[in-house]
Structure formats: C-alpha cells, structure tokens
C-alpha cells in the first residue's frame, strides 16, 4: 500500500490488522483515512490520523 499524501509506502502490522478487523475497517477505508483524515502530531516521527463519523471516530496511529 502506498500513500500519495505522505509519499511513502505503508506497512500495516499484524496488530493493526487485528484492530481493523475488530473495528470493521477494510483496506479501502484505511486508504481513504490515510489520504483524507485529520492529522495530529505526537512528535516529529509519529502522528495520528483520525476521521470523525456520526457513530465513532476512526483513529490510526502512524509512524512517519
């Protein structure tokens, strides 16, 4: 998977895939989140990407 927004390859860990399954998030939704979600930086190397919905926010922790 590649993010045009961040200009880098994205590796989804086993743990992330498990959490995606629990939250019923598929790869298409993940791609959309990467490209359009709101970012919040933890530090220079890490950030979160979130997209709010009426039901619940979808949050992705990303290592830059």
UniProtKB/TrEMBL annotation:
Pfam families: DUF4258. This is DUF4258 domain-containing protein. The lineage of its organism: Bacteria, Pseudomonadati, Pseudomonadota, Gammaproteobacteria, Oceanospirillales. It comes from Vreelandella neptunia. InterPro entries: DUF4258.
């Amino acid at each position: 998977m590649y993010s045009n927004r961040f200009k880098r390859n994205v590796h989804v860990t086993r743990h992330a895939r498990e959490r995606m399954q629990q939250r019923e998030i598929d790869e298409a939704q993940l791609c959309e989140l990467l490209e359009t979600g709101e970012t919040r930086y933890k530090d220079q190397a890490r950030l979160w990407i979130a997209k709010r919905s009426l039901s619940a926010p979808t949050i992705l922790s990303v290592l830059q």
